[in-house]
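Please review this one.

:::
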Amino acid sequence: MKFAKWVYRIAGIYGILVLLPFYFVETNPLAIPLPALTHPEYYYGFVGLGIAWQVVFLIISTDPVKYRLLMLPSLIEKFSFAIAVAVLLSSGRVGPYIIPGAGIDTVLGVLFFISFLKIPKA
C-alpha cells in the first residue's frame, strides 16, 4: 500500500506542477510548441481536466485500498496519451518534442498498473 501511496502522490504533484503553468502561457507562442489556438476553450478545458485528474491521483494516494477502482480510469488517463502519441508519431503528425511527456506518462501508467495489482481488493 505504501508503494501505491507514493506513486499516486508523486504523479499528482508532478502533474500539477507541469499543468498549472499552462494557465499562464496560452498567449506566449514561444512557451509551447503548438499551432495557434483557434478554440481556447479546448485548451483551458484540457488543462482543467488534467488538473482534476491530478487531484484524483492525490485522493487515491490517501487510501489506495478504498480508492482502488479509481486506479482503472487512471490507467486509461495515462495510457491513452502514450498510445495516441505513438500512433501520431508513426504517422508523422507530431514531432519528437512530445516523446518525453509520453514517456513519463507511460512510466507512470506502468507504476499505476503495478500499484493496482499490489493493492488488495477492499
Observations:
- The mean pLDDT is 91.
- The first helix runs from residue 2 to 19.
- The helical segments are 2-19, 40-62, 71-90, 99-118.
